[in-house]
Description:
Number of domains: 3
CATH architecture of the largest domain: 3-Layer(aba) Sandwich
CATH class of the largest domain: Alpha Beta
Strand order of the largest sheet: 2-1-3-4-5
Number of helices: 21
Number of strands: 16
Amino acid sequence: MSSVKNARVLIVDDETDVLFALKMLLKTEVKEVVTEKNPDLLPGLLERQKFDVIFLDMNFKSALNTGNEGLFWLRQILEKDKDASVILITAYGDVELAVKSLKEGAADFIVKPWRNEKLLETLHQTLEKRQQKTKGSTATTSAKKNPHTTILGESEAIKEVLYKIEKIAPTEANVLILGENGTGKELVARALHEKSFRAGKPFVSVDMGALTDSLFESELFGYKKGAFTDAREDRPGRFEAASGGTLFLDEIGNISPAMQAKLLTVLQNRQVTPLGSNTPIPVDIRLVSATNEPIYELAARSQFRKDLIYRINTVEITLPPLRQRHGDVELLARHFASIYAQKNHKATPDFAPETLQKLKQHSWPGNVRELQHAVERAIILAEGNVLQPQDFSFSAMEVASAAPAASYVPDTPVPLSEIERETIIRVLEKNKGNISRTAKELGLTRTALYRRLNKHDI
């Protein structure tokens, strides 16, 4: 870490305690630490000396407290030195503003109150990036060395998502992922984990929509032997299992008010108490949540706690539906074709032009997941090595309208399972992929509908 030991660091903050704490932390890590309370003196400081990293507070005037002061001085610094590495210091509630400021040219940000080890990791990472730039290495080269291949897309909509992942992942901010079913919310959650400083620790995923009130505590908080009839041994909950890593709570918009209250208490106290125990266990998790529900509408109707929303969405990522990802359908279709051709011991097929046209015109209510299953079915059933329009079918209505009249035989019995499958697809399309509304219309629980989706490979 010679680059760190030789680094010169400037800290600009109007709080004396912050300056002192940072100087004490960094003085044994770097060559020189300079502190400054008054940002108006920044231009003169930068004229006299070059700094490898500048820690810059986002708020200097308590009466304003908007972060605009930090953005102003960030721009001033970058005007003086376009290659300056600026790490913003922000309050918990201003993280969204800090993320936006990354587009203005900031290298990274830390949230007050910070953890010393996290701050040092951010400093080291920023210095390493700076050193790579000096050697002529570019962000593009870095991306080629460490490609993230699980989220594909070239549309502007998905590029915005990938940009946010890159910037948010190294922070400790809680993230709320919004988007329709099948848009890839779990992929984003895993990407956030893999690109974070917790990457070597557990990633634990929980489908909150499948948990009943009675299972909620035992699954999330764990239990002690004898806590209830079937508790034959101690079992850690998902929070404890994820400690040190990332906990992903999928379908969080579907949990009951009682569950919401218990979850809020754990997130506030950062400790869980297993069933059958009176001893709380501290947990250290980075929380990522996801839902396809209109969570703010639920909050407005008092069906979801606003204070819980504030806890889970320090930063928000909204995933675009596939129909809005212009240009990505062909890219994804070819990607899935390559995967499933290899899986089924076939040559990777091509797509007829009219097939690509059909895929691009489809509305994809099930989003990327629907496209993935459609391509897999086509690979399995196609006769030739060029996928034709007839190799893709999306609903019972479309199949019926495409079939020639002579081939329809009214007396031919239709298997009950096929009727069930086509009914689910039709209702799912009608509800634009919304699982909760589809389950309600079909008279099923969400868990029962998920079982049928898996059963019919939808």
